[in-house]
Amino acid sequence: MFEPLPGFRDFYPEECRRRDHIFRHWRQWARRHDFEAYDIPTLESRELLTRKSGEEIVSQLFHFEDQGGRAVALRPEITTSLARMIGARANSLKRPIKWYTIAENFRYERQQKGRLRSHYQFNADIFGEPGEEADAEIIALLLESLRGFGLSPDDIVLRLSDRVLWSLFLESLGIEGETALEVLAIADKMERMPREALEEKLTPYFNEATEEFIATVEGLRSRRGIEELESTLLALMPSTPLRERVAARTSQWNELLRSLRALGVGDFIRIDPGIVRGLAYYTGFVFEVFSVDEKGEPSGRALAGGGRFDGLVERLGYAAMPAVGFGMGDVVLADCLAEKDLLPPLVDAPDFFCVVGGDEERRLALEDAGRLRRDGFRVRYPLKATGFGKQFKQAGQSGARMALIYGSDEAASGSVRLRDLRSGEEAVVPRSRLFSVIHRSLEDPETLHHLNQDHDQK
Ligand code: HAM
Q1: Do residues 136 and 285 make contact, with C-beta atoms less than 8 angstroms apart?
Q2: Same domain? 335 vs 193
Q3: pLDDT digits over 225-259, tens only?
Q4: Atom 25 of ligand 1 has which residue's CA nearest to it?
Q5: Pocket of ligand 1 (CB under 6 A)
Q6: Residue 317 within a domain
């Protein structure tokens, strides 16, 4: 007996319906925000993924050597491959480049609630636009697509932070470059790390000033307004050039917040310097979306995360290209929608169910089923002969709108009996008029009723 590997899921039709519902929404919102679809290979060069994404993802790679001796890996995320695609055609692509994809990702994680080894992600990214308008466009798509599922600012929050301000703060402490990235990777886990472990991780960078650093960061993390954050940072910084850079950044923050309010998603935003993001390539505004608990506080795992990553294309060896984007996972999202009772019952029903008598009637039913299918309808008929009673029961359970009944009387008179499976209304219709009656009854559910009355009056 075999089961799926740990962290992988089988999708029976019911789960497929739920997944397709989520995908449909994602696609719809991407299109409404004017993003184009693209796709990337599932298998990538291991080197591309290990050099460019950041340590955490690298330790989670599913990797192996292929038969040609190449070191390959299943994609753990989309972004690095996307940067490769964009870099390769940077000159010919029309800007702004606004692309989206829905793709399966693989990460060898410890399996737990909200974390699997395979998950689907909705990714949307904008390349070629360095300004906050692009960040606003990305964040608006992320939040509108979540609102589209019925989630309101009472249900979810987007925690918005900034790697530029984080970097300026670290620079004021003399920490820059690779070392700053290492400290940011630790800061990203601060929320979830026990104090002792945190001190141990930070001591190599701050020695006896470690406690003071943690206290300062805790103060910064609790700031919820941009002016408040700015004044706290300015108070920490003696150097004028750094202070000027903080002030310049504050005005970019204000631009971004203005656009987000104008786009109608301001109520979802919470300024929250506690967000750093685990991936090394982020360079500017960063954000994560969480569901909120009864106290209005973010809880559980992030539904989505993203930010600006202006250096990635260049680091892959191409001309520099600014970029901003997000990834939203299906696992945490589906859990959140289920908890909030926002997953509608998803029926997958045929339009018509043919109830057939003997062999001759079956031939007639198959002819009509074929024509109806070519006309765009979804038609079901029993694949083997059974009694009428059983077929009527199956027709009722199928959720079909109408039963098309092919009995010997109907066959002899060249007609079909139509039964509206909701109202129970029936009418006998010549096969030659089947299509026009069907089309009419889709526009007007009373059609069979009227046909019956006409018949009674004759
Ligand atoms: P990420 O934060 O690693 O970002 O993943 C984005 C979302 O995917 C997470 O918030 C979570 O919902 C979901 N996710 C990630 N790992 C798992 C897992 N093991 N099981 C279930 N769900 C998971 C990125 O991947 C970036 N590449 C996003 C991005 C796009 N940044 C810029 N553009």
Answers
A1: no
A2: yes
A3: 999 999 999 998 888 899 999 999 999 999 999 99
A4: 77
A5: 77-79, 107, 109, 115-116, 119, 121, 123, 125, 279, 302-306, 309, 325-329, 331-332
A6: yes
Cβ burial 431-442 (10 Å sphere, 16+ → b, else e): beebeebbeebe
Residue 345 lies in a domain: no
Domain boundary among 313, 339, 365: 339
Instruction: Locate the ligand 1 atom nearest the alpha carbon of residue 327 and give its number.
Output: 28
The residue contributing the CA closest to ligand 1 atom 29 is 326
Specify which residues 51 forms β-bridges with: none
Structure tokens at 282: 């982020």
Question: Is residue 385 domain-shared with residue 335, that is, in the same domain?
Answer: no
Q: Both 153 and 286 in a single domain?
A: yes
Length of the chain: 458
Residues 330 and 368 in one domain: no
The minimum-distance atom of ligand 1 relative to the CA of 115 is 20
What integer pLDDT is reported at residue 59 of this predicted model? 84
Range of the domain at 396: 352-457
pLDDT in tens, 296-330: 899 999 999 999 999 999 999 999 999 999 999 99
Same domain, 330 and 370: no
pLDDT tens, position by position, 8-36: 999 999 999 999 999 999 999 999 999 99
Residue with the nearest Cα to atom 30 of ligand 1? 326
Q: Is the pTM of this model over 0.70?
A: yes
287 and 369 part of one domain:
no
Look at residue 65 and tell me if it is in a domain: yes
Asked if the structure places residue 5 within a domain, the reply is: no
pLDDT at residue 57 tops 90: no
Distance 64 CA to ligand 1 centre (A): 22
Q: Which of 274, 307, 339 is a domain's end point?
A: 339
Nearest to 30 by CA among 152, 131, 142: 142
Ligand 1 atom nearest to 121, measured from its CA: 8
Which range (189-193, 263-267, 407-411) has the least confidence?
A: 189-193
Ligand 1: residue whose CA is nearest its atom 24: 327
Residue 407 has pLDDT above 70, yes or no: yes
Looking at the structure of the chain, the number of domains it has is 2
What span, in angstroms and rounded, lies between the C-alpha atoms of 328 and 77?
Answer: 11
Q: Which two structure tokens, joined as six digits, stand for 429? A: 């219709």
Q: Which amino acid is at 124?
A: A
Q: How far is the CA of 308 from the centre of ligand 1 (A)?
A: 15
Identify the residue whose C-alpha is closest to ligand 1 atom 1.
305
